[in-house]
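Input set for joint prediction.
Command: fold jointly, output tokens.
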Amino acid sequence: MSASTVAFVLTVPHRVCAEHPQGRHTCDTLAVDAAEWLREWLLQLGATVKGPILGDVSRTEVVDLNRRESRGYEWRRDLDSRLVEMLGSTPYVFLVDVHSFDTGAPWTARAELEGRPRPVLAFLNDRKFVNVVGMPEALRNALPGAWRELVSVGGSPQNDIVARAREIGVRWSVLIEFSEAEARSDPDWLSRVTLTIARAMLGITRL
Ligand SMILES: [Zn+2]
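tokens >
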């Protein structure tokens, strides 16, 4: 199929930086930039793109929009409606849930312990929750040698935007995490890696 028949939906649920009682990584500081780059490249490659749809909760609400308990919130319900509406006009919807991680991410700590290079991308791939077969392989093949620090970790039922999209009937849905540290150390990295990912995602739709 041609690129223009695939409708990409980009979501950034964690762009709101709220105080978190446990002092955790509370917002994804690189995710909006990453989603905007993805949008730019996908459009240039001829795809249809909606979003980035930025997470929105009121200041008094402490809820993670990527968790099941947020399904009743307005932002989640609105996302459901948009997806259902899009599926009415094309069966080829590809949801990309965009996140970023800091050095405290578990896969970074694990790589350090095992003496492996610092991961720059995390791709949550579990057939139960992520219905993009072949995506890690496509990315690994597309990434130049220096960018192979890609981790593919199992999805979790907590990745609820991806899980919900699958329930609704979205054909491809995936969660991607970008390294904030990598973007700080190399200003061009984000634009390069998002182009690679955009091409790999379009490649997947032609499988
Ligand atoms: Zn996140």
